[in-house]
Specification:
Helix content: 25-40%
Number of helices: 5
Distance between the termini: 67 Å
Strand order of the largest sheet: 1-2-3-4-5-6-7
Number of strands: 7
Strand content: 35-45%
Number of domains: 1
Largest sheet: 7 strands, antiparallel
Order of helices and strands: EHHEEEEHEEHH
Length: 170
């Protein structure tokens, strides 16, 4: 266990039907919420379900297996850390609902097995910044295209290469 000034606490955290007063997740998501056809109009965030595995230690809190269902937005999953100074470093995935989000979520996850739009939460605990991970979206699209090509050629690189070069298979 160690000394009391270096206490480490771990365990699951679960919430249901909760309201985060004074925090508008839709407005914080910015461009991501626009994909869902949502406007920042509610100063509170209603959370249907939230769960995570927490670790609180002197080096800062850590959250794994975050799973958050917000009716106005969709499902958000991920993991990250908070430094002792309050700096956030979270990698998240948003399965948005409504608007063009359904289509965009499907495009971003083509063949990758992960549905959703990747984003990061950075900044500080008092001023978090939600940033879409466009590299992650592009990577998901590329992985999906590669997966479809592999499936079409039954995983045979020679077939895939000759197809790219315009040669017909015998």
């Amino acid at each position: 266990m160690g000394p009391m000034d270096k206490l480490v606490i771990t365990g699951p955290v679960r919430l249901a039907n909760t309201k985060l007063t004074g925090f508008d997740l839709g407005s914080k998501l910015g461009a991501l919420s626009a994909f869902a056809g949502k406007e920042a109009s509610n100063p509170d965030t209603s959370i249907q379900n939230a769960s995570l595995n927490a670790r609180v230690a002197p080096e800062g809190p850590k959250a794994d297996n975050i799973n958050l269902t917000v009716q106005a937005v969709g499902v958000i999953t991920g993991a990250g850390t908070v430094s002792p100074m309050g700096a956030l470093n979270f990698k998240m995935l948003a399965e948005l609902k409504g608007g063009v989000a359904g289509g965009l979520t499907q495009v971003a996850s083509l063949g990758s097995g992960k549905g959703g739009i990747p984003f990061a939460i950075e900044g500080t605990t008092s001023n978090p910044h939600f940033t879409p991970d466009m590299k992650g979206v592009a990577g998901g699209i590329a992985q999906g295209a590669l997966g479809e090509a592999k499936a079409a050629t039954k995983g045979n690189p020679a077939v895939a290469l000759s197809g790219l070069l315009g040669k017909k298979q015998k």
